[in-house]
Amino acid sequence: MSSVRIGVDTGGTFTDVVLLDEKSGRIVTTKTPSTPANPAEGFMAGVHKVLEAHAGSRALDAVSALVHGTTVATNQLLEDRPDGTSHLGFVTTEGFGSVLEIARQSVPDGYGNSYFWVKPPRIVPVHRVRTVGGRLDHLGREVRPFDEEQAADVARWFRERGVTAIGVCFLHSYANPGHERRMREVLEREHPEAVVSLSSDVLREYREYERSVTTLVDAAVKPIMRRYIESLSERLGRPFSVMKSNGGVLSAAEVVHQPITTVLSGPAAGALGAALIAGTAGHPSAITLDGGGTSTDVAVVVNGEPSLTTEGGIGRYPCKIPMIDIVTVGAGGGSIAWISPEGTLKAGPRSAGADPGPICYGRGGTEVTVTDAHVFLGRVPPHLLGGEMSLDVAAARAGVEALAARLGLTPERCATGILEISAFNQSNAIRQITVQRGLDVRDFPMVAFGGSGPLLACRLIDILGLPAVIVPPDPGNVSAFGLLTVDVKNDYVRTHVARDPSPETIGEILADLEAQAADALHREGFAEHVYARSADLRYYGQAYEVRVPAPDGPVDEAWLAAIAERFHAEHERLYGYGYRDDPRHVVEWVNLRVSGIGPITRPKIARRPRQEHEPSPVATRDVYYEQWGRTVIYRRADLGAGAVVHGPAVIEEYGSTLPVHPGFTVTMDDYGNLVVVSDDR
C-alpha cells in the first residue's frame, strides 16, 4: 500500500480531514461532526473515514505522517470558564507581586474612557501570587542572591493548596535564566506533582507583564494538552505532529513542553493552505477568509507569506509568541440571531456550535442561526456532506418566521437581515486586517474557504469593492489541506537593547539561537536546516519596535548597516516618515530572532481539464435573492476549467455551497478554483 499523509483540523462544528497519497498525488477529503465533549473521538472518526475512502481500510500502517490542527489547549481560556485557571499559581521577584494587577493602563477599543471599563479578573488572582527574594539587573548580573529557603516555602505553600500548574517569571530573566532554573529545581524537589513553566523558556524577551502572562497561559494549558496528546497517542498508537500558530508544526512529544505555541493552530493552517492555493493560481497577495461554524478568521498574505505578529493574544490574555496575524470575529454558520434590549436584530458572537447546532440540524437547537437563514432562503441545499446529513428545512422556516414575527418583519426580510449583519461583521474584520494595517482592501482578491466561507462572497465583493473572490476546491477542507503544506518551525528570541551594538555580541547571540534551533530540529529528525533571522529595532525613545528580516552570513559593520537601512525603509512604509539622514534620532536594537525550519515537500496542485461544453445544471429550486425565483443548481464536480456560471445560481459541493447572486459571474480557473466577480467591474 502506498504511503499517505493526513491532515486533521478540529473545528467547533466539523472535523475536517485531508489525505494526500505521496506516490500518486491523489487528494482525498472528508468531514465528520466534531465531538466537543471529547475531541479525540471526532479526530479518530475522521481519520478512519478518510482511510476507508482512500483504500477501503482503516489500517494506519500506510500513514507516513499525521498533522493535527487544534485549539483544545486554549478553549477554556477563550471561553472564560470559571475553573479555567483555578489550578494556576504565579511566582515572581520579591517586590513585584502586583505585576499582573498593574498590567497595562490601556482601555480596549469601544470604550470612550476608562470610567466605563471594568478591569477584568487577572489570569492569577493576587492571593495565588507568591514572591521570592533575589535580583538581577537588566544585563543579567546578580544584584541579590537567589533566596532558596524562601523559594522552598513558596513551593510548599502551593503544594498544600493543591496548585498544580505554576508559572515563574523573575525580573530580567531574559538576560540570565539562572534564578528561574533554580526555582524550578526547588519546585521539582518540594512539589513534584506541579507542572512548571519558566518565562526564560517560553519567551526570552523583555516587558515583564506580557512575559508573565504568556508564561502563565503556557502553564495553564499544559495539563490539558498533556492529557489530550496522551489520549490521541494511545488511540493512534503512533507519533503525530501538531500545527503551531507561527506557521510551522512540531511533534506532539515536543508540543506538550510548549503548548502555548498551538494557539490558533487551525486558523494558521487555513491561512497557509489558502496562500499556497492563491499563489499557484497567480495571486501571490490575497486576503484569506476562513468561515466556520462558530467564527470567521481573516488574514492577509503578501508575496506568498501570511503576515506574522507577536502582539496577539488568547481572548483577553496578551501572548507575545510569534503567530500568524489573524483577526477572528464571531460570525460563523452557527452564529445565533437575537434581539437586543433596544429591539434591534443582532447576529453572533454566541454560537450554537456542533451540539445542539442550528435548528435545521434537528439536534435540539431552538435559536435561529446564520445557517438557518441560508436554508430558509434556499441558498443552502436541504442536506450537507453530499447527502450524509439531512437538514430540517421546515424547522428552520418555523424558527425564522417566529423571530420575524417578534421583530415585525417578513420572514424573508428577517433572514436577509441576519445574513447582512453577518456579512458586515466579516467585512469589519477584513478592514481591521487591511485598512488598519495601511493596506487597500481593493488591491487584494479574497480566498474564501471553510464550510460557511463562500456563502457571503457576493455580498463581501459589494461591501468592500474586492476585485474577486476565489473559492478553492473542497473549501471546507482548506485548513486540513494547509496542515500538509507546513514545515517544522521553531522560534527563538533574545532581548539585547543597544544603540551601538557590537558585531561580535550580535553574532554570538545569533549563533546561540541557531544552535538551539538546530538541537530542536535534530530531535525532530531533520538533518537539513534552514534559519530565518530577524531583528526588532526602533528609534531611541520609541516604546515599540519594527521587525525587519536579517540576512545570513557573518555579522560585521556592513551587516549592521544593512539592517538599519531596512529598518528606516520599513518604518517609512508603515508610518510615512523615517529619520534615515537625521543623526539626532539614533536607531536602537531591541530583540534578535531566529526561526529554525525543517523543510518538507509540499503537495502540488494539479491543473484541471478544460470544459468543452457549456455546463448544465443538475436541478432547480426556489431561492431568494432580491425575490423568490426558480434558480438553477450546479454540481461543482461537473465543472471543468473555463466553465462559466452566471447568477442567479447556486453551486454545490460536498463540504460547502456558493450562492451566485444576480449580477455576478463565476469562472473556474485552470486549478479548479471558482473565481467570483461582479458584472459591474
Report helical residue fraction. Answer: 25-40%
The largest sheet, given as strand count, sense and whether it forms a barrel, is: 9 strands, mixed
Distance, first to last CA: 50 Å
Instruction: Pick out the low-confidence regions.
Output: none
Global morphology: globular
Sheet-strand content, in percent, reads 25-35%
- Radius of gyration using CA atoms only: 26 Å
Residue-averaged pLDDT, rounded?
90
- List how many beta strands DSSP finds: 37
Discrete helix count: 16
Pfam families: Hydant_A_C (PF19278), Hydant_A_N (PF05378), Hydantoinase_A (PF01968)
Domain Hydantoinase/oxoprolinase N-terminal: 5-190
Domain Hydantoinase A/oxoprolinase: 211-491
InterPro entries: ACX-like_C, ATPase_NBD, Hydant_A_N, Hydantoinase_A, Oxoprolinase-like
Structure, described:
The chain has 16 helices and 37 strands. With 681 residues, it is an alpha+beta fold. The model has no long low-confidence stretch (mean pLDDT 90).
Which key features would you list for this structure?
alpha+beta, 9-stranded mixed β-sheet, 6-stranded mixed β-sheet, 30% helix, Hydantoinase/oxoprolinase family protein, Hydant_A_N, ATPase_NBD, ACX-like_C
Concise description?
With 681 residues, the protein is an alpha+beta fold.
What's the SSE blueprint?
Layout: E1 4-10, E2 14-21, E3 27-33, H1 39-55, E4 63-69, H2 75-78, E5 88-93, H3 99-102, E6 129-132, E7 135-136, E8 142-144, H4 148-160, E9 165-169, H5 178-190, E10 195-198, H6 199-202, H7 208-236, E11 241-243, E12 249-251, H8 252-255, H9 265-280, E13 286-291, E14 296-302, E15 305-306, E16 308-309, E17 313-314, E18 317-318, E19 323-324, E20 327-329, E21 335-339, E22 345-351, H10 370-376, E23 383-384, E24 389-390, H11 393-407, H12 411-433, E25 446-449, H13 457-464, E26 469-471, H14 478-482, E27 488-498, H15 503-523, E28 530-539, E29 546-550, H16 557-575, E30 587-598, E31 619-624, E32 628-635, E33 644-646, E34 649-652, E35 657-660, E36 664-668, E37 674-678
Parallel strand pairs: 1-4, 4-11, 5-6, 5-9, 9-10, 13-25, 25-26, 32-34
Antiparallel strand pairs: 1-2, 2-3, 7-8, 11-12, 13-14, 14-15, 14-20, 16-19, 17-18, 21-22, 23-24, 26-37, 27-30, 28-29, 28-30, 31-32, 33-36, 34-35, 36-37
Helix pairs in contact: 1-7, 4-5, 10-11, 10-12, 11-12, 12-13
